[in-house]
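Just curious. Protein, please.
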Amino acid sequence: MTITWKINSLDKQESDGLVVTAHWNCTVEKDGVTATVNGATGFAKGDSFKPYEQLTEADVIGWIEGSAQAEQTVEMLLS
């Protein structure tokens, strides 16, 4: 099984560059069958803050993968 996350766009606050929403695609491939879903995950400012200009796609995917929404998305695609 292969799970691929892709960030399509980010919404940020202009005042401080805080990313508030990531719009993404999640694709799951299993046994030659592929399914994709689009979604969005919202964020609040946490204990650590990384400036927008320093963010990488891997940073944002890590935030998404750490959310309950990620597990639900993969389970939905597998069903």
